[in-house]
Design goal:
This protein is mostly helical. The chain contains 2 helices and 2 strands, in the order E-H-E-H.
Length: 75
């Protein structure tokens, strides 16, 4: 399990770090999401918006499939 705790990350960093986690065999990713990240009481700097999270999952899916994993996306 990979938890990018207390990091101020841009959407691009989220993508690269989570791709690396999948590539080395992480069994899970813990990614914080908030409907309005700037209004989150805690961890606003690392929270993704729903759209950013969806885009990240779509970007990670091909890599996950290439290593025999899957990304579960609930809409």
């Amino acid at each position: 399990m990979v938890f990018l705790m207390s990091l101020s990350l841009t959407e691009d960093y989220h993508k690269h770090l989570n791709k690396a986690a999948i590539a080395v065999g992480a069994d899970g990713l813990l990614i914080e999401m908030h409907p309005e990240p700037s209004l989150a009481w805690s961890d606003a700097d690392q929270a993704l918006s729903p759209l950013e999270l969806h885009n990240l999952m779509m970007a990670l899916d091909p890599l996950a499939k290439s290593v025999g994993r899957s990304i579960i996306i609930n809409n």
